[in-house]
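Task: sequence in, structure out. Protein: Lipoprotein.
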Amino acid sequence: MHRRRTALVVSAAVLLLSAPLLTACGSAAHPGAAAVVGDDRITVSQLQHEVNDVRDAQQSSPQGRQLQANSARLNQDTLIRLVQYRIVARAAEDNGVEVTRREAQRRRADVERSNGGAEAVRSRFLALGIAPDRIDEALTMDLTRAKLDGKLGTARTNDVLRRTSDALHVDVNPRYGTWDPKRGIAQPTQEPWLRAAAPAPGEPQRPA
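Result:
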């Protein structure tokens, strides 16, 4: 049971970092900001600090060269994650979903127990471009999404996250691209917070 749930956590992080949600076109720039999500500014310095934390941890790893070679998109991937965390957090707040500190600690313990210990977990998340001191945040967001699914159902959660993204008017510095909130509608498997919902009883499945 623990091993299966943990695998889903890591898979969610992989999707989060691999989905190309920032397109090549730019939007109106905000001086000093990498992105603006509602009233929240993600500054360029904040983004660079996050990226530097990952690079420092990669350099200290025995697999440092390989990790750095596999993370050429680290700036953009990190910004995607920071934007999405804010969207998930707002959706959770609007829908009465909360992850307690105890729940987050229990999830971390489960993940470490099912994946060979704390060091193995740090290595796996570092390969995803997530610094050791950000693992709890990543697991908390994954648990938040899981609780949204549990309360609303996957299909409704997808819709809530799309509408939340629209309502927050996400704007990204052209240096990193532009946010595409509608991409998940056309290609839901490419949207890391959108998950395939099971068809309703009697509803035929769509061909792949």
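Residues 74-94 form the longest helix (21 residues).
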